[in-house]
Amino acid sequence: MHPAGLAAAGTPRQPSKRRIPVSQPGMADPHQLFDDTSSAQNQGYRAQRAPSGLGYPAASASPQAAFLADPVSNMAMAYGSSLAAQGKELVDKNIDRFIPVTKLKYYFAVDTMYVGKKLGLLVFPYLHQDWEVQYQQDTPVAPRFDVNAPDLYIPAMAFITYVLVAGLALGTQDRFSPDLLGLQASSALAWLTLEVLAILLSLYLVTVNTDLTTIDLVAFLGYKYVGMIGGVLMGLLFGKIGYYLVLGWCCVSIFVFMFPILQGVMMKPKALGGGRMRRSGRCG
């Protein structure tokens, strides 16, 4: 056997050495999935955080410097803010001229106890004794303190409920349609407007000076929707007999409820100052 063969057989074979290419400084690692941008960001951050002459970061610009840098936009912003404030103030001053917001707040000052008592008074007014509206100094107390005071919460809710109940009645007769429901609501609102105008015209023709306002008339005339709701519901349950019985009862109840209150308000002359007559009353 050749000595070279023996040497090859007895000597272990050295592993082959592979040359791994050395990446250049500007080249990326071929095994890296994403580019490493941290070094560039750090360099940019160092550039932004360049130290000042004393070795500390440069201080941010002051508000005066910012204003001097862009004075036109700041002046426009200040002018726009002042203009918006003036417009809001103008609207707040003139809105009461067309919509008496403060008076409407009074007519919606109700609570759950008042609503329950008022509904019971509208349906069963026969046992009620004290019909006088209570006053505190020269202004009437809020409706939640006086069950005789007019409010707009019950008429508004009763009107909406009446329209919905009327739509239910039309649906039971296979006559429901959005147009017919809108016509029902429009006709109810038109009749209420005509009633208010007729009463105002009558008061003007007979020259009666009273504290009864248009909102008071809308409130008192809107109470009739409570009886109309009861009549429609009883008509759905018991037919025409139940409808006419409940409707007749509610008509008499509304008359008994409104007559003493309206009589006391209309017979009381207006105060010399143009407001309500001064009369003391308790709030509860």
Provide a descriptive summary of the structure in words.
It is found in: Endoplasmic reticulum membrane; Golgi apparatus membrane. The chain crosses the membrane at residues 152-171, 183-205, 217-237, 243-262. Residues 1-37 are annotated as: Disordered. With 284 residues, the protein is mostly helical. The chain has helices at residues 3-10, 38-48, 63-69, 71-98, 101-107, 112-123, 153-172, 178-205, 214-222, 224-266, and strands at residues 135-136, 139-140. A two-stranded antiparallel ribbon has the order 1-2. The longest helix is centred in the C-terminal third of the chain and has 43 residues, at 224-266. The radius of gyration is 43 Å and the shape is extended.
